[in-house]
Amino acid sequence: MPPLKNKKFDELIVLYDFTLAGGASRPIYNYYKHQQESAGKRMVLLRLFTRRSFLKLWYYGFLSERIIINGLPCFNYWQVLLLCVLKRGVVIYLHEAAPHVEPFAQRHALKFKAFCWMLRNRKVAFVSEWQRHYFLKWTTVPRYKIVYNNINFPYEQKAEKGKITIAMVGYQSRYKNAGFFSKVADEAVNRYLPYEFIWIGGEGGEMSQMYHSPNVRWLGDLEHVMDALNSIDILFFTSYGDTFGLVITEALYKGKKVVSFIENGLAPFVSKLKGCRVYEQFDESLVLELIDQVLKEEVNVKEHRDLVEHLCSMDNFKSRLEELFAMPDE
After folding, report:
1. Which of 54, 102, 150, 247 qualifies as a cystine partner to 169, CB 3.0-4.6 A?
2. pLDDT digits (tens, 9 = 90+) for 55-80
3. In a domain, 99, yes or no
């Protein structure tokens, strides 16, 4: 840890844990690298799982002009809650909704009460309007901004021709809905449809409670997810309660077709795009009908990319954060 003399930092970013495979980590890491390398800012990225992390939290917290608390899991710790009480210039950047918020509220009632106080009295970045409406069931949030996740815009790579490949990207967890993905794959096989179903992403807990179809290729974690998207035809996004859906933007930017469940932050945008559909119930026959519909449509790649660039460029991400930081504290 550096000595106190002449040490000031522009921004501290606090994370519970960090993995580039997760949608809650990639956008804030992209921002951290951009601010550090392109904007010349003195940045600190602090993981709460590291050695002496809480000593570092206080040290960097009081030497930083601004602080971003990245995600609900950080509030497992009273030290983070106390820092938010004592400091100004704090933004709480949330990625979670029902699958994570409700268990937290049940298991940590007192901490959750303190967390809701923070939402009323500190600045909050939501990743979608859908997520903001969800949090209204818990508390009011007077100082907020919708800060859509940013992405690293991918390079061009020609996809290989072959079967119609339908993929989902995400951890194999209950709320990512690997079971429903499996049932749709089974129904497609029963109908002799020429589809190949693949799931990209490792185990995410509750594995014994989920059905894993032998008609799905379970690829596990891949280092370069964006490259894997080159070879698919349709992103079949089965997750429910997903506040944003980062992989949807990545697929759209590559000109891919998307069939998505309605409960995510991007569904209102996806539903308006040609070559995309949104479904409202977990019905295998309905989803296969929607897949058939999108296969018959041509994608307007420019329309897809214009939308993603509007929502997810680093310039827009920074601009929305700056507007949020500029809001007065309580």
Report:
1. 247
2. 999 999 999 999 999 999 999 999 99
3. yes
CA gap 95, 171 in Å, rounded: 15
Whether residues 213 and 288 share a domain: the answer is yes
Sheet containing 276-279: order of strands: 216-220, 195-200, 164-169, 234-237, 257-261, 276-279
Name the nearest CA neighbour of 48 among 26, 81, 87, 10. Answer: 81
Among the listed residues 198, 296, 299, 321, the one whose alpha carbon sits nearest the alpha carbon of residue 253: 299
The one-character DSSP state at 158 is P
Strands of the 123-126 sheet, one edge to the other = 43-47, 9-15, 64-70, 90-93, 123-126, 144-146
Closest residue by Cα to residue 160 from 230, 256, 234, 235:
230
C-alpha to C-alpha distance for 12 and 67, rounded to whole angstroms: 5
Over residues 4-47, the pLDDT tens digits come to 445 789 999 999 876 655 677 889 999 999 999 988 999 999 99
| pLDDT at residue 2 tops 80 | no
Residue range of the domain that includes 105:
9-150+313-326
In a domain, 4, yes or no: no
How far is it, in rounded angstroms, from Cα 147 to Cα 312?
9
Write the single-letter amino acid at 73: P
Task: Please say whether the dihedral angle defined by the alpha carbons of residues 163, 166, 170 and 175, taken in this order, is positive or negative.
Answer: negative
The count of domains in the chain is: 2
How far from 145 is each of 73, 78, 207, 303, 321, CA to CA, in Å? 20, 25, 36, 25, 8
20 lies in the same domain as 97:
yes
